[in-house]
Design goal:
single chain; mainly alpha
Length: 77
């Protein structure tokens, strides 16, 4: 496993964590949800995934990843 892949994983992980914390904070502030309800938790994870993907696409991270990311640099023999 290369250091480039590990760095990419850490960057995306930090981004998704921050997005999740923001969504969790807003949900607790404006809605009175039981955070032990797995349906609510599942919905939050879904929204985080969708928003995260859209934001990474909007900011050009996906395009950058396809040109210089670890997955595109691996040579298939």
């Amino acid at each position: 496993m290369s250091m480039k892949l590990i760095k990419e994983c850490l960057y995306v992980g930090v981004f998704i964590t921050i997005l999740g914390l923001v969504l969790h904070f807003l949900s607790m502030k404006y809605k009175n949800h039981d955070m032990n309800d797995y349906k609510v938790f599942g919905l939050h994870l879904f929204v985080i995934g969708v928003l995260g993907h859209l934001m990474l696409e909007y900011f050009g991270v996906n395009k950058m990843y396809c040109t210089s990311g670890n997955a595109c640099l691996i040579k298939v023999e």
